[in-house]
Amino acid sequence: MIASRRCRPQALDRAAAFRPDIAFLDIGLPGMTGYDLARRLRELPALQKLQRVALAGYGRAEDKSRARAAGFDAHLVKPAELRALQEVLAQA
After folding, report:
1. Is the bond leading into 79 cis (omega within 30 degrees of zero)?
2. What is the pLDDT at residue 10?
3. Burial (CB count <10 Å: 0-12, 13-18, 19+), residue 58
4. Domain map of the chain by residue range?
């Protein structure tokens, strides 16, 4: 996903061009964590209204707190339940 620390990941460029309303981001991404990606997305002026949802295999209170600190609006534990996905989508 990222060639070097100096390059912008393709996800940032694509998100800025597409301007989605919501993004579900896996925490365990290669080259850049989902936490880092959420922080970088939050910095883009075109994506200030983007709702960021963390998808993680961990659901402890510390994990949810770390996701909020990184700029996520919601935190879902994989596999996410349909009802939880529907609630997040309804808020977008």
Report:
1. yes
2. 79
3. middle
4. 10-91
